[in-house]
Design brief:
Elements (H helix, E strand, L loop, with lengths): L14 H17 L3 E6 L5 H5 L5 E7 L2 H10 L6 E5 L12 E7 L8 H11 E12 L16 H9 L2 E11 L1 H18 L12 H19 L1 H4 L10 E4 L8 E9 L8
Parallel strand pairs: 1-2, 1-4, 2-3, 4-5
Antiparallel strand pairs: 5-8, 6-7, 6-8
């Protein structure tokens, strides 16, 4: 899988962003019970594998058939773990058939995230739980793959349309984590200043994404590991959950329980 900026990759993505994803799955695992669990947007399945337990079946779902095949091959010896090519806005499972569903860094990729949230609610049993992890809008840095960003109140409002009980925590970082984010943001700002005509905001989005995918690896090589945060040693231990969320808080960790009857069908 090549580096495009859409998915985190070991050895290519900054340690702090890998840690961001790791910490989210750690928090999911701490709250996960028995039954059927779907991990939407599983990628190559390394994080999905962490959710496996003797009392649960875990299904990794991804829109990319090629990625699903690679994940299935990589983890074929792991009992209780399966992979399927599902669209996050059209999951190929029966209504009310899943106990837990994980949406980690997926919702921000949907131009209309309501379709994704509706599917989370549709697939869950009456007492099921969805975990939604996404960047906190004020703290996120420009990324063409992130098309719909949330602040806490917005995320709670959208989830509440489909779930009876919604809690939103901050996925916060310590000072070392924030120092890394600040340094990388400064480097990113310097690179963006090269686009003096702001062409990225004038060209069609498809062209912007195409350019971003090709420029990002070059930018990482030009900046070097010290500037990109690769090899910094930051890990999920540098993250913790909190009820206090401010503009610096990197991520949101929402827990949505008990899907509203018929909400996913628009009734």
């Amino acid at each position: 899988m090549k580096l495009t900026g859409e998915r985190p990759m070991q050895g290519a993505t900054p340690d702090s962003l890998l840690a961001f994803h790791d910490a989210g799955y750690r928090e999911v695992l701490a709250r996960l019970g028995s039954g059927i669990t779907i991990d939407v947007g599983c990628g190559l399945g390394d994080e999905t594998r962490r959710l496996v337990g003797s009392d649960r079946l875990v299904i990794g779902a991804d829109y990319s058939t090629e990625t699903v095949r690679a994940a299935a091959s990589e983890h074929e010896r792991t009992d209780g773990l399966r992979f399927s090519a599902f669209d996050g806005a059209a999951l190929a499972v029966r209504d009310g058939s899943v106990d837990f569903i994980v949406s980690s860094h997926i919702i921000e990729h949907f131009p209309n995230p309501v379709t994704h949230v509706a599917e989370l609610a549709r697939t869950l049993r009456a007492d099921g739980t969805a975990f939604v992890i996404t960047p906190n809008a004020p703290a996120d840095f420009e990324n063409p793959f992130h098309v719909y960003l949330f602040e806490p109140a917005q995320l709670v409002s959208m989830l509440s349309l489909f779930f009876e009980e919604v809690t939103c925590l901050g996925l916060e970082g310590d000072e070392a984590l924030h120092a890394d984010f600040t340094a990388r943001r400064a480097g990113g700002v310097r690179l963006l200043r090269l686009d003096v005509l702001r062409l990225r905001q004038r060209v069609p989005r498809a062209l912007y994404v195409w350019s971003y995918e090709r420029v990002l690896p070059l930018a990482y090589r030009m900046l070097g590991n010290g500037r990109t945060g690769i090899g910094s040693g930051l890990s999920e231990r540098n993250f913790f959950t909190t009820e206090h969320i401010d503009a610096r808080t990197p991520g949101l960790f929402a827990i949505a329980r008990r899907p509203r009857p018929n909400a996913s069908r628009g009734e």
